[in-house]
Each structure stands twice: as C-alpha cells, then as structure tokens.
C-alpha cells in the first residue's frame, strides 16, 4: 500500500512539474510602449510567465541590454520607440538566449527599473533629455549683395537652432537657441550706409543660452 501511494505521489509531482514547465514563457509575442510624464514604459509580453532574465548596461554607444532564455520573438528585430532619448528596441539570438537592446542618445543610462509581472517584463526608463552642447557664435555681419538686397551673416561653430517671429510691423525677431556668444558681438550693427531699407540690427541677450537679433 505504501509503495502504491508513493508511486501515486511521485507521478502527481512529475505531472505537476510538467504542467508548470509548459506554462513558462517560450517566446515574446508583442511589445507595448507608453510614454509617461518623465518615464518611458516598455513591456515585453510573452506567452507565459517570465521567471528568468538578466540585464546590464553597455557603453560606446550607451544601451540597456536584457537577456531572456526564450526561443523566439514575434516583434520586428528593430522596433522603433519614436522617442528622442530612446529611439529603438532591437533583439537577436545570443548564446542560446534572446538579447534585447534599447539604444539611448544619452551619454550615460540613468537609473532604471526592470521587473517581471505575470506574462510581462516591464522596463521603466527615465526620459531625462540629453544636454546639447552650446554652439559658439563667432561673428555677425551685414553685407549688401545687390542694390536692393542685403544679407545678415551669422558665423558659428555648428548648426544653429533658431526661431523667427514678427512682434511688430516692420520688425523681425531672430532668436538663436542653445548658443554662447561673446559680449563684444552684442552691439548694434551699422546699416545706414546700405540702401536696402534696414534701419537697425541689434543683437541682445535673452537668457543664458539664448540670443535675440532685432531687425527693423
């Protein structure tokens, strides 16, 4: 009787283990992406519970890497995240596992959270934007290119970000963003000798990294 009960119990445990094994995730079936106030949430959705995974960061370029012992993934190998900080998610096979890589435009990956919940592996990433280098303005010149046309020339060390507005009639405001400009360039340009109708060109500081140029 004891042998019979022992056989029944062992058979039950083996069968239960097989059921648990069959419930474990074998592949990623979809990805869900949600942009929150200050974070980007990425969910890797599997066909069962995800119980084992390894994550770490790499540099040159900065990226977050996640290894999951699964056999397949149904999402595109390069999945755009449509985010300026984390542009894409990509995956491939690596040493018998699936390796997921989230590329970043930051110099260093900020603190993040990764945890498994039900059939999902949830990844929370900070949306702190990378600080762009300031563009140095080297010169501001005004020149005549024809009897009726004049040209404002701004020389810089890189591509300028700018905005143009018309705050008043006959007035144009050119705003340069994310720049550094020496104080000797913040002076009015001489325009009275040019017959193109420009009365005044006045560069001035708006804030620490912004410069306005008033054209009248």
Question: Which descriptors would you attach to this protein?
Answer:
Immunoglobulin-like; 51% strand; mainly beta; five-stranded mixed sheet; five-stranded antiparallel sheet; 17 strands; 1 helix; rod-shaped; 216 residues; 2 domains; 10% helix
Describe the structure.
The protein is mainly beta. The chain has 2 domains: 28-126, Immunoglobulin-like (Sandwich), CATH 2.60.40.3500; 135-215, Sandwich (Immunoglobulin-like), CATH 2.60.40.3500. The protein has one helix at residues 2-23, and strands at residues 27-35, 39-46, 54-58, 63-68, 72-73, 78-80, 88-94, 97-103, 112-117, 120-126, 135-146, 149-156, 161-168, 171-177, 179-180, 201-207, 210-215. Strand 3 (54-58) and strand 4 form a beta hairpin. The longest helix is centred in the first third of the chain and has 22 residues, at 2-23.
Number of strands: 17
State the separation between the terminal residues, measured CA to CA.
105 Å
Percent helix range: 10-25%
- Outline: rod-shaped
**Total individual domains:** 2
CATH topological fold name of the largest domain? Immunoglobulin-like
Brief summary of the model shown:
With 216 residues, the protein is mainly β.
Question: Can you lay out the helices and strands and say which pair or pack?
Answer:
Layout (H helix, E strand, L loop, with lengths): L1 H22 L3 E9 L3 E8 L7 E5 L4 E6 L3 E2 L4 E3 L7 E7 L2 E7 L8 E6 L2 E7 L8 E12 L2 E8 L4 E8 L2 E7 L1 E2 L20 E7 L2 E6 L1
Parallel strand pairs: 1-5, 11-15
Antiparallel strand pairs: 1-2, 2-10, 3-4, 4-8, 6-7, 7-8, 9-10, 11-12, 13-14, 14-17, 16-17
């Amino acid at each position: 009787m004891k042998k019979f009960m022992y056989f029944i119990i062992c058979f039950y445990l083996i069968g239960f283990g097989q059921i648990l094994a069959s419930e474990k995730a074998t592949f990623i079936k979809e990805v869900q992406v949600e942009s929150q106030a200050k974070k980007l949430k990425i969910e890797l959705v599997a066909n069962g519970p995800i119980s084992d995974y390894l994550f770490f960061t790499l540099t040159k370029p900065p990226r977050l890497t996640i290894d999951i012992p699964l056999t397949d993934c149904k999402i595109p190998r390069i999945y755009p995240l449509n985010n300026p900080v984390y542009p894409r998610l990509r995956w491939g096979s690596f040493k018998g596992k699936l390796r997921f890589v989230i590329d970043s435009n930051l110099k260093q990956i900020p603190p993040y959270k990764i945890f498994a919940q039900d059939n999902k592996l949830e990844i929370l990433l900070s949306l702190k934007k990378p600080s762009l280098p300031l563009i140095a303005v080297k010169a501001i010149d005004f020149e005549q290119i024809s009897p009726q046309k004049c040209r404002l020339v701004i020389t810089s060390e890189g591509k300028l970000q700018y905005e143009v507005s018309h705050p008043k009639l006959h007035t144009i405001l050119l705003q340069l963003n994310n720049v550094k400009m020496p104080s000797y360039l913040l002076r009015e340009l001489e325009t009275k000798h040019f017959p193109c109708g420009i009365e005044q060109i006045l560069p001035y500081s708006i804030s620490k990294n912004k410069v306005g140029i008033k054209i009248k």
